[in-house]
Write a structure and sequence with these properties.
single chain; alpha/beta; seven-stranded mixed β-sheet; five-stranded parallel β-sheet; 15 helices; disordered N terminus
């Protein structure tokens, strides 16, 4: 049914062993623009046999790639950075068409990929080992990092190229080869990403792109005997399932999962600065990011003043197609995500929360648009305060003291990002020490990570591994101890 796809629509095939692959009986799925509900393109769905072909190609390529000097591997990443620069607008526009984020955010995300290429290229020169003093007078002992083999990278739709870059580039520079399974919602963006590495002449099999459902492709990769590492970003429930599957073969897995992130605002804080950071953290990417602020934990004596400032700033946000220059908030990614947000807002009202702003689908726009929503009278045990929504919904929780704020912050199964607004140096440092979060920001929003700084969460926000910095090498490499007697 896809032979006569209109020329202006994109078509994404699989990329296996350096070739774009399309079997005569290949099945495809649609990519739909969540702003217009129009067909953006079609994408190949990998069969079980094609998944095996991709893994086999990656395994063969590893034999040579692992021995390729790190300076040569770095050269490919530098070439990729230049190629991404030329392709920036094309990739950004496709991301906006596929998942809805505003174009400025999409352009910023491609810039992250470019900088990650350069960063990982440089860090490759610092894949240092260790020299260990021996108890013998005639022996040298070295500890060296070695690549593990085939890495399966499974990435989400909310940051389709940045998160792919963090995983794939760390794997490549350390000498591993990659089979990449992107989210189906952003498979066309993945195709454009992969085209860059095809254009720069990355050796066949070093990077392979396979698409399809997570249940089919993701689970098969997690159980595949020739896959040595799985790097996954997504929901905690799926991460737990993949972890179970990987455990059957003692396969290494890196998990970057959900969050229920809070902005703690203490009574001495700069409320204008806090309000601006809250709105940006809560509603950028339509709240569809693992580090989005979904809770404001505020001391009671300043709660009403802070709420007024947050509501006023939220009212100024313009909802619309992400390709429109004046849009601040795009749509939710799909119909299911819209349904989830609507259900949680209803649950919040049933539990006694008060919707002070928003709370409705935007019916005069065709796509999956939902108003940025602010709910007060939320108690720490309410579902809206405990469960990840992944949408533009912000809960206000009032507390009496700093100590209670920390207790409420930590009272979830998640521990990814926490922001604390205060001008009290003592409380800032105590808060940074006591919050159970992998990321802590003082007087900044919850989504302010920088390249080169370890990124990841505690508790059910991850399994202890880190990305974005050279700490990703702990996932992508194995230590080998070499004893030489002479």
């Amino acid at each position: 049914m896809y032979e006569n796809v209109k020329a202006e629509l994109e078509k994404a095939d699989l990329y296996i062993d350096g070739n774009w692959v399309c079997d005569p009986d290949q099945s495809y799925f649609d990519s739909v623009d969540p702003s217009t509900l129009e067909l953006t393109g079609v994408c190949a769905s990998a069969s079980a046999a094609q998944i095996d072909l991709a893994v086999d190609a990656s395994k063969r390529a590893f034999k040579t790639w692992r021995k390729t000097p790190v300076s040569v591997r770095a050269d490919y990443l530098w070439k990729a950075a230049n190629a991404f620069e030329k392709k920036k607008m094309e990739i950004a526009e496709m991301m906006t068409k596929e998942m809805g984020k505003v174009l400025g955010e999409s352009l910023g995300e491609v810039n992250v990929v470019i900088e990650t290429c350069k960063y990982m290229a440089g860090e490759g020169r610092r894949l240092f080992g260790e020299s260990v003093p021996s108890g013998s007078p005639d022996r040298n002992i070295l500890m060296v990092r070695e690549p593990l083999g085939v890495v399966a990278c499974i990435t989400p739709w909310n940051f389709p190229v940045a998160l792919a870059g963090y995983k794939i580039l760390a794997a490549l520079i350390t000498g591993n080869t990659v089979v990449w399974k992107p989210a189906s919602e952003t498979a066309l963006s993945a195709k454009l990403f992969t085209e860059v590495f095809d254009e720069i002449g990355l050796p066949p099999g070093v990077l392979n792109l396979i698409m399809g459902s997570g249940r089919t492709v993701g689970e098969k990769l997690s159980m595949h005997k020739h896959v040595n590492v799985v790097s996954f970003t997504g929901s905690t429930s799926v991460g737990c399932k993949l972890s179970e599957l990987c455990s059957k073969t003692l396969k290494r897995i890196s998990l970057e999962l959900g969050g229920k992130n809070a902005v703690i605002v203490l009574e001495d804080a700069d409320l204008d600065k806090a309000a601006e950071a809250i709105v940006k953290s809560a509603f950028t990417t339509t709240g569809q990011r693992c580090t989005a602020a979904s809770r404001v934990i505020v001391q009671k004596n300043i709660a009403s003043e802070l709420l007024k400032k947050v509501v006023n700033l939220t009212k100024s946000l313009k909802i619309g197609n992400g390709l429109n220059e004046d849009s601040d908030i795009g749509p939710l990614v799909n119909k299911n995500q819209l349904k989830i947000v609507e259900e949680y807002v209803q649950i919040a009202a049933e539990e006694g929360g008060t919707i002070v702003y928003g709370g409705n689908r935007v019916h005069d726009l065709k796509g999956y648009f939902y108003e940025p929503t602010i709910v007060t009278n939320v108690r720490p045990h309410h579902r809206i305060a405990q469960e990840e929504i992944f949408g533009p919904v912000l809960a206000f929780i009032e507390v009496d003291s700093f100590e209670e704020a920390i207790e409420v912050n930590n009272d979830t199964v998640y521990g990814l990002s926490t922001s604390i607004f205060t001008n009290n140096l003592k409380l800032a440092n105590m808060g940074a020490r006591d919050v159970e979060s992998g990321l802590v920001y003082i007087n900044n929003g919850t989504s302010n990570a920088e390249l080169g700084v370890a990124f990841g969460g505690m508790k059910q926000s991850g399994n202890g591994h880190r990305e974005v910095s050279y700490h990703a090498f702990d996932v992508m490499t194995e230590w080998k101890s070499i004893y030489t007697s002479y």
